[in-house]
Write a structure and sequence with these properties.
The protein is built from no helices and 22 strands. With 239 residues, the chain is mainly beta. The protein has one domain: Jelly Rolls, CATH 2.60.120. A seven-stranded mixed β-sheet has the order 1-20-17-22-15-13-14, with no helix packed on it. Strand 2 (13-16) and strand 3 form a beta hairpin. The protein is globular and about 45 Å long.
């Protein structure tokens, strides 16, 4: 019998700094919910909207795998490794903070908001050499199927991180079904980017999240056209 937990969109933590509006699925900064600290090695799932020309000034990270997935607009990244890049929808960005890195993130545009997910994963290797990665995925390769965008293997599709984790994104038309086989003894945290899905008999709508574990696989069924979902397949045990 599989285990599952559902986090509805409206139950997430929320902060409004004016220039930043951020929803926190798990405890983060001023939002602390002892029942929602992490899902396995998935530590942070923040749903951010940054106003035009605004952003996060230079700040440090260490010993965390940090993944950014842009949803709308253009996000400019600068870091202490010498990288200056812009990420847009279809791009996946990863930063292995390792022994320590500084970076900043700003909305590249002055006249429109940028929306993106920032995800933190505990690494399986501490004090690694800091590393930056970015890749542009073909959006047509996630139409009515799940497109891998992250894995532990540098030679596999998408970006890679220091953890036995796999991410997939799919965009589905109504009534299309996909089956996902969970890797190893992992669990999956499913996050609906838009639209609605039926998973294990549970209806999930935009920005709802659902954790599933102790099962080899599960089916998801899109309940309307242009429904998009992110699956985060992660170890359930912290090293």
């Amino acid at each position: 019998m599989s285990n599952q937990i559902i986090h509805r969109a409206e139950t997430r933590g929320f902060v409004d700094h004016g220039w930043l509006k951020s929803y926190h699925t798990f405890s983060f900064a001023g939002y602390h919910n002892p029942e929602r600290v992490h899902f396995g090695v998935l530590r942070v799932l923040n749903d951010d909207m940054v106003s035009g020309g605004m952003g996060f000034g230079t700040h440090p990270h260490d010993n965390m795998e940090i993944i950014s997935i842009p949803l709308e607009g253009d996000l400019e990244h600068k870091d202490s490794m010498g990288n200056t890049t812009v990420i847009r929808k279809g791009d996946i960005q990863v930063m292995s903070a390792g022994t320590g890195v500084y970076h900043s993130e700003y909305n590249k545009n002055k006249d429109e908001a940028v929306k993106f997910l920032q995800i933190w994963i505990y690494p399986n290797k501490r004090n690694a050499q800091p590393r930056y990665g970015q890749i542009t995925m073909a959006l047509e390769d996630r139409q009515n199927k799940l497109q891998q965008v992250l894995s532990p293997d540098p030679n596999d599709a998408g970006v890679w991180i220091h953890q036995d984790a796999w991410f997939h994104i799919g965009n589905f038309e109504e009534k299309i079904t996909a089956t996902y086989s969970i890797k190893k003894e992992n669990g999956v945290y499913a996050f609906v980017l838009k639209g609605s899905f039926l998973i294990n008999g549970e209806a999930l709508n935009t920005r709802d999240g659902m954790g599933i574990w102790n099962t080899p696989s599960f089916d998801l069924i899109a309940q309307q056209n242009d429904s998009e979902i992110l699956l985060m397949d992660v170890p359930m045990q912290l090293d």
